[in-house]
Amino acid sequence: MKLITAIIRPYKLDDLELAVAKLGVQGMTVTEVQGYGHQRSHAEHYRGAEYRIDFVPKTRVEIAVDESIVEPVVEAIANVARTGKIGDGKIFVSEIEQAIRIRTGETGVAAT
Amino acid sequence: MTNEYRQESTARRWLARAAATGLALAAPALALAQDAPVPNKGDVAWLMVATLLVVLMTIPGLALFYGGLVRSKNMLSVLMQVMVGFSLIVVLWCIYGYSLAFTEGNAFIGGLGRLFLNGTLDASTGTFAMAATFSKGVVIPELLFVAFQATFAGITCCLIVGAFAERMKFSAVLIFMVIWFTISYLPIAHMVWFWMGPDAYTSAELVGELNSKAGLLWQWGALDYAGGNVVHINAGIAGLVGAYMVGKRVGYGREAMPPHNLVLTMVGASLLWVGWFGFNAGSALEAGNSAVLAFLNTLLATAAAVVAWTIAEWALKGHPSMLGAASGAVAGLVAITPAAGNVGMMGALVIGLAGGAICLWGVTGLKKLLKADDSLDVFGVHGVGGIVGALLTGVFNTQSLGGPGLVTDWVTASVGSNPIGTQVLIQAQAVLVTVVWSAVAAFIAFKAADLIVGLRVPEDVEREGLDTNEHNERAYTH
Questions:
Q1: How far, CA to CA in Å, does B381 sit from each of B59, B93, B221?
Q2: Residue B288: which of B31, B26, B34, B50 has the closest Cα?
Q3: Taking the alpha carbons of A84, A86, A88, A89 in that order, is the dihedral positive or negative?
Q4: A22 touching B, CB under 8 A?
Q5: Given CB atoms, is A32 within the 8 Å cutoff of chain B?
């Protein structure tokens, strides 16, 4: 089992959801986050004041999957989220030690 | 029928006079004589609605406009300062404010004859005292005038809180308001708006004596329809003095302090616009032609200012912003306030365009020059917009530029126009008096509040936010 964490542009979320659903992904957790990478700080103007905004709004998507579909899911996410410009985001893949479905008590891949 | 016709023709005859002088009040007299004028129900209904509209523009209009502009940790502090400040001033208004502003005294301040609203209602006979309007023989119940003017005093004091938002102690805000209201709002209102009323002017011999009983700026012939001097310049200057005396917010210029909710700011600005029709068109004191002129001008000038601000900001800064459009609306409303029934429609258009564009400079270029942390640009919008409006009223009042002109003789109701240069000079002198008076009064009021409780909250309280510390609650719980 792997946990795929993707930080993407917020407006790419719908495309991402469609793309990974086709690959058999049955659930995900979505969070609004802010942060910065290479796309660092932008200016916003409010009347006479100019503010440097360091943290850019992004959407974080977490998907737990069986190892067999990690590659295609990561590829699908990268494809839909890519614009080629700075600020497209990141994908992290990490190991999941255990997964438990709270309702049934199922564990492992069955619980994802 | 005859009576209705007479009132209509009277209204028409008196339009220009009502338009020309701004707001005032005659010496109230108990209506005991049989031929004493009876208020028109339409006038009474309109003035009650207009009063409600000014309440609407303050709570919630101004409160939300300001509230959206601060950071979320200070949202409730602004709402509280506006709601409680307004309420406090209305109470003081009914105790002593009305009497000092709108009864006979000297050229600077009124008397104490209406302390606790004494004399406005004779309970034993059920007789209501009447207040004069700008038309001979047309009166409204004095209590209605008291209520209408109470809302003006209330909103003026609340306008100032935008200048020191996010850092001033609530107790200090209230102490400042009480003092400033007493030593600045009341005298300026008296100087600009108090006069003996049209019915008193019965013969030429009386004119000199009657004029000498009016407020100083009224005697000079300053035109201020709904409060460019009394409300906006007055509040704008007090705000600027406050921004200097309270000092900059912690982190000002280094940390980002963006508005926390521009949606609420837009809602607030829109309520201000709607409420302002009561403010401006209500200042005619009758539901007549002058009110209609003020109504149309309030609509047109505000729309023009939104367009002007938006286009100027788009051209100069690259983006047309929602905050810019909302600010433009308020700037236009401020600028048209002294002019509302005192200029023609195309004069209003120019005043709106000028107000929008110049106030944009007021909150950008001028703000940088002033180096004050006027948090919500009370001076940049109300001070600057008020001055622009006051001066341009002197330009566009003249009949040759489509304005209604002014009354040159209250005995015969003759209407004429002053040369533009003359009227602009009078307007400028009135502005100068207001600026100096309000600045000195504000300095005294802030200094007193500082000595009594201290102006600012401690730095850690300011960092955490006024809501949780000063008011022990949060605007948003999630």
A1: 19, 26, 25
A2: B50
A3: positive
A4: no
A5: no
pLDDT above 70 (res B34): no
> CB A79: neighbour CB atoms within 10 A?
11
Percent of chain B with pLDDT over 90: 90
Q: Which residue of A has its CA nearest to B319?
A: A45
A100 inside 8 A of chain B by CB: no
Instruction: Say if A43 is an interface residue toward chain B (CB within 8 Å).
Output: no
* Pick from A46, A52, A53: CB nearest B259: A46
Residue A25, min C-alpha distance to chain B (Å): 30
Residue B458 has pLDDT above 50, yes or no: yes
Task: Say how many Å lie between the first and final Cα of chain A, rounded.
Answer: 8
Q: Which residue has the tokens 């719980």?
A: B477
Q: Which domains does chain A have, with CATH numbers?
A: 2-111 (3.30.70.120)
* Chain B touched by A49 (CB under 8 Å): yes
**Alpha-carbon span B113 to B131, nearest angstrom:** 14
Structure tokens, B269: 């600005």
Q: Which domains does chain B have, with CATH numbers?
A: 2-468 (1.10.3430.10)
- The pLDDT tens digits of the residues spanning A57-92 come to 999 999 999 999 999 999 999 999 999 999 999 999
Chain A residues in contact with B363 (beta carbon < 8 A): 47-48
Question: Given CA atoms A107, A108, A109, A111 in this order, what sign does their dihedral have?
Answer: positive
Question: pLDDT tens-digit profile of B202-255?
Answer: 999 999 999 999 999 999 999 999 999 999 999 999 999 999 999 999 999 888
Q: What is the pLDDT of residue A40?
A: 73
In angstroms, the CA B360 to CA B366 distance is 9
Q: Which pLDDT does position B35 carry in this prediction?
A: 66
Q: Do A45 and B327 touch (CB under 8 A)?
A: no
Task: Map residue B348 onto helix, strand or coil.
Answer: helix
pLDDT-derived band at B8, boundaries 50, 70, 90 = very low
The yes-or-no verdict on residue B171 having pLDDT over 80 is: yes
pTM, to two decimals = 0.87
Tell if the CB–CB gap between A47 and B256 is shorter than 8 Å.
no
CA dist B101 and B194 (Å) reads 7
Transcribe chain A into DSSP letters: -EEEEEEE-GGGHHHHHHHHHTTT----EEEEEEE-SSS--EEEEETTEEEEE-SEEEEEEEEEE-GGGHHHHHHHHHHHH--SSTT-EEEEEEE-S--B-TTT--BGGGG-
